[in-house]
Structures are given as C-alpha cells and as structure tokens.
Design a protein that fits this description.
alpha/beta; D-Amino Acid Oxidase, Chain A, domain 2; eight-stranded mixed sheet; six-stranded mixed sheet; disordered N terminus
Length: 406
C-alpha cells in the first residue's frame, strides 16, 4: 500500500519529557505530523523544581503556554547569594520586574511536574500529535528517503508486548541522558558521572521563613552549594543541595540518607542548616554530563536536549536548552524541505550556544565551590559589582529569543 503524504512527512520523537513535548508542539504548530513515544506507561508527577529563564519563556510564550505556566510558577524578586563561610549575604541579583523589562519575558521558577503537565495537556489537545505511552524504541534504520523505527508496546494485561514498525521522515532523540537513540541508533558514547550529586526535596512553603519565599537562595561553600526557591504558585518550596562525592550505588537516582546529608553540612551557617533539616526525606541524583564536540545528527536522525548535550545544573539551563532546541529544530524543518539538511541546519544553529552554556555550567561548578583565599576573592568581586552588572553578564544567555517569522 502506498504511503500517505502525512505518513511520509511524519517525524518520530523518542521521549515525552520537556524537550520532546516542546519539539512536538513546535512542529505541530507548523502543521507537521508527529508521533511521540515514551517508555513509561503513565506520566507521573515526578521531579523537583527548575528555572525557566526568559530565553526559554520566549519559546513557551510562542507556543501559547505562558498563561497556563504562570498559574503554577513564581517570579522570584531576586537571587540572594549567601556565604556558607559567614552566613552573610554576598550579593542580590535582581530578577522579577527588572528581568522581565530587560529581556522581554519573565524569569520563573516552577515544579518540573507542573511544567510537564502543561506541555502534556497541550500535546494531548493537538490533533497533529500522536502520543504513545508504554512504548520503547527497539531499533531504527534509515535510507535516503525515510527512517524506519521498530517499537515495542507494553501489554496492559500482562501478556506479551506488541512489536510494530513505522516509517517517517526523521527520528528525534529526546530521550535524555541515557538516550537509546544516542547509544543504539547513532552508536555514540553516553553521558558519564561528573563526580557531583544533587540532593532534592520539596516541602510546604509555610514551613519556611517568610524572607525566603520570594527569592532564589544560592549558598556558596567549599565543594558544595545549596539552591532553594518557591514553586507550585508559591505553595511549595524546592531545596537542592549539590555536593562533590563518589557514586557507589547501582542506580542513578535513589532515596538519600537524610542524616548523612545533614552531617555533610554540619559546619554550615545555622540558617542554611535549618532549611536543610526541614524535609523529612530526600532523593538524590547522580549528575552526568557530556563533553563538547559530539555530532548530534546522522542523516535523518538527530539528538536534542540532554541526549545531545547533558550538562551540569550549575547554570540552571538544562530545561531551557531543551526548550530552545525544540523550537530551533521545528523551525529548521519548516524552513528546509530536505530533512537531513534541515537537521544539519538545526545543529549548526544550536551547537555552539548549547556548548557555551555547558562550559558556563562547568565554570560555575568551580566558582561556586571555591575555598580559602579563592573564595574570599570571589566574594569580594561579587560584593563590589553593582547588582545590575551581575545580571548583565548573562545578557547573552537570557536575552536570546527565537528569530522573528518572516
């Protein structure tokens, strides 16, 4: 049977996370049929907080999602940088109305599950998006005219899984750090453990002192730092403690030993220790990353988000880069009829910027975790700079927006 034009144009996206759904929505708004398949049988509200800086919000606004997101998000007034040595404030970097006026879009903090829910609801409402849960990619191949995927659909009654095949114009690997598309289809090296671990918890905001509920807190210490901010429309409070340590467990995410975590911060200021003691339990994630310079595209197959450029969270741009990728990828495919050429154009546009952010995150890792005289010098520089100058140093990052149509 001849393949329909719709099927021939269809793009497959592996992974229904933030990057995959953003890409699907951006493609569907350009009338491109999309099938998104996700290994998880159900989409559960998981994760903790994340930051949506103006560069990401420009994309989400263009997808018509800003109003829905604002119902769940908080626009922090500032980033308050604290010293883990003295307990005193080092600097306060303005956000809120200042950032929105400067960059033309808000700087928001939000629970990952809330962002994901907004994206998922929009995808389910789109006639151009087919969403297949409980479906994993077994294999894929390509020729000059098409990409072919082999998909395994889990049985809902406990029986044998169903395997089927599909053909379309391209395959996008949006399947995260442990990407099957990256490993099996493109035969590329996976991300590696960075020597850093993130401990995460979310608690009711009413359990936190009032003066922390409208800012992002950033505590800088030797070989560790702590970040916290309100999420869920201000109803909850997100806490993240990032430390240097070896990972000796078989899983890459796991329940954390609360007492061991608190002992790790025993010599930190009382105000920070008080916050860390409030969650009754913690989860931890091994932080993994990739080196710059890896190819993202092979013919009709492309990587995006963490599958392409997994980075440390020390620039708060993991979600933002995935969201930017999705918009750029859809725009390239809409502009260039030949899919392999379009994917190459997408990589050419995105790779230098994503890898610049990756390097920024690595640099922040060093700066945040300084000790001794280096830490004293860092703090003195930050105190001496006007608050607006500290923000302006990131104009290249936060000031990005998609090119105007035309």
């Amino acid at each position: 049977m001849a393949q329909s034009r719709s099927d021939a144009d269809r793009l497959f996206i592996a992974g229904a996370g933030i990057g995959g759904l953003t890409t699907a929505l951006a493609l569907s708004r350009r009338a491109r049929p999309v099938t998104v398949f996700e290994q998880a049988a159900t989409i559960e509200p998981v994760g903790s907080g994340l930051q949506l800086s103006p560069n990401a919000m420009h994309v989400l606004r263009g997808l018509g999602l800003e109003e829905a997101l604002r119902r769940h998000a908080v626009a922090p007034r500032a980033v308050r940088v604290m010293s883990a040595r003295t307990g005193n404030a080092i600097a306060e970097i303005p956000l809120g109305e200042h950032a929105e006026q400067r960059y033309g879009a808000p700087y928001l903090v939000i629970h990952r599950a809330d962002l994901h829910s907004v994206l998922l609801n929009a995808a389910r409402a789109s006639a151009g998006i087919t969403l297949r849960l409980g479906t994993r990619l077994r294999d894929a191949s390509q020729n000059a005219g098409a990409v072919k995927v082999e998909l395994e659909q889990a049985a809902t009654d406990g029986g044998a899984a169903h395997v089927d095949h599909g053909s379309g114009a391209g395959l996008i690997g949006a399947d995260g750090v442990w990407s099957t598309v990256r490993r099996r289809v493109m035969n590329l090296r996976q991300a590696v453990f960075s020597g850093r671990t993130a401990y995460r918890a979310v608690i009711p905001a009413e359990d936190v002192p009032q003066h922390w509920r409208d800012v992002t807190g950033l505590w800088l210490g030797a070989n560790a730092h702590v970040v916290h901010y309100p999420v869920s429309g201000g109803r909850q409070f997100n806490l993240v403690a990032l430390v240097s340590e070896d990972w000796r467990e078989e899983r890459w995410s796991a329940p954390a030993d609360r007492e061991a975590l608190l002992a790790r911060f025993a010599d930190w200021p009382a105000a920070c220790r008080d916050l860390l003691a409030r969650p009754p339990s913690w989860l931890k994630w091994a932080l993994c990353g990739m080196d710059p310079g890896t190819d993202w595209v092979d013919g009709r197959v492309a990587l995006m988000g963490d599958a392409a450029h997994a980075m440390l969270p020390f620039a708060a741009q993991g979600a933002g880069m995935s969201i930017e990728d999705g918009e750029a990828l859809a725009r390239a495919i809409d502009r260039i009829p030949d899919v392999p050429r379009a994917l190459r154009s997408y990589q050419a546009e995105r790779q230098n910027r994503a890898e610049k952010v990756l390097r920024l995150a690595r640099a922040n890792d060093r700066v945040y975790h300084m000790r001794g005289p280096m830490a004293l010098a860092r703090d003195a520089v930050m105190r001496g700079l006007p608050a607006g100058r500290l923000l302006a140093r990131l104009d290249w990052l936060y000031g990005w927006r998609p090119p105007a149509a035309g």
